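Reviewer 2 asked us to include a model.

Predict the structure of this chain.
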Amino acid sequence: MDIESFLKSIDCEFLQNEPLKKHTTLKIGGNCDYFVLPENIEQIKEIYMFAKQNNIRLTVFGNGSNMLISDFGVNGIVLSTEKLKTTELKNGTNILAYAGVKLSVLCQFALENSLTGLEFLWGIPGTAGGAVFMNAGAYGGEISSVLKSCTFLNENGEIITKPAEELKLGYRTSIFKNAENKSIILFAEFNLKIGNKTQIRAQMEELMKRRKEKQPLEYPSAGSVFKRPKGYFAGTLIEECGLKGLRIGGAEVSEKHAGFIVNKENATASDVTALIEKIKKEVFLKTSVELETEVLYIERDNKWNS
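Predicted model (structure tokens):
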């Protein structure tokens, strides 16, 4: 059975030859063969097993906020978690969030229930699944500090729940970032505390104010391009090397925050990758510090990339 016939047989919404620049915060990326929008876990499981059995590449998409997609797009199936957006309150202080829940929605849900612990996520343009995948963090907070457990589909099609301690959560990493791990995050449970709604809102507003002042939110970007080198800040090193405003094609090192590359004018993925390599080379030559990219680069022809 071909991909289109299969997707129709399970009544799953899909788009063919879909431009992925429409689904990434950098607004860059070629087309994918099939952009698939499952509505439930059962559909995800069926799509997963179909792809595996037929050796079809499967790429999982959240909000596309930490991705750079090849100008040639992505082959096979791109599975979007966009429709998996259920949030539930559990035991009064815990929140269960499906993979596609946007972090803004998750933070707002916590605020409405006077729960504190997620404020640091306010303003990050990601999803719950993506945040667990990379152990997202900002302003001194990390997912690892509030995550209780994660439920995922493993490579055998089994639904597994693991406590946070078994997910190898480190700086911008988890077991899910291992290239050999083919699991798909389904939902996560966060362990929060009762707080004061006024104070929670004030903290969220303060962090958003800081983001607007320091980050180039007026342009498309993928957030921080580089991981924080031990003992340094990537943005500071790049700025000290005189690279603010450096431009290749439509991609530019942000004038506001040198740790960001912005899509200033119809940038391509090749513009961004060339700029990344230029930055890494210049910083190493002048400081002997090797920068490591945080943004995930997705090429067209990998066999499997979940």
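The chain has seven helices and 19 strands. The longest helix spans residues 269-287. We have added this to the supplementary material.
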